[in-house]
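Our preliminary data section would be incomplete without showing what the modeling component actually yields. Below, a chain of 195 amino acids is followed by its predicted structure, encoded as tokens that our downstream tools consume directly.
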Amino acid sequence: MSRIYTRGGDAGQTSLGDGSRVPKNTPRVNLYGSVDELNSFLGVAVALLNEEPGLTDYAGVDIPVVLEELQNRLFDLGAVLANPVQSAEPASFPAQGMEKLIDTLEQELEPLRSFILPGGHPAAAHLHVARAASRRVERLAVALAATEPVPASAVAWLNRLSDFLFVAARAVNAAAGRGDVLWHPQEAPGPGGDI
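Predicted structure:
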């Protein structure tokens, strides 16, 4: 890659990995663009965590290292999705590694007794943003898979990714001494009235 701009997309078209040209608003381009957006959200969380080394390790899990590995896997996923030929081939996005990490973190976390709100430490809040983006990517992958090839393991992996990001956000808040931000359902109008 010699330069960032090519002018090839100035008319609203882009090239897929197989060389075909498609409009930039196609479901496939929307999906792998959303994967890129999710990757960027993870980058913000990593940067925030690396500013506070005391938050990086929880229950023996080095969260920024795991997040950077996930960023690399997201790049792999984007590359597969950008090529319809590769998307039709079996691809391996195993979710078992994330399941082990989730189990490890959850052993140290307080059990959930309420729904929680995104927030707390800034890195945890960004992990919640990434979690929500991951759910959107998963929905887009399921929608695309109804009409075009998408690796089935990628959909399961994305589902587990959002689970991991939820637990990682809780772990960051616990490490920061903030705990979860609990949801308080409205039973009667609060001090601000009916909002």
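Residues 21-109+116-176 form a domain with the Hypothetical Protein Ta1238; Chain: A; fold (CATH 1.20.1200.10). The CA atoms of residues 59 and 105 lie 6 Å apart. Preliminary results of this kind motivate Aim 1 of the renewal.
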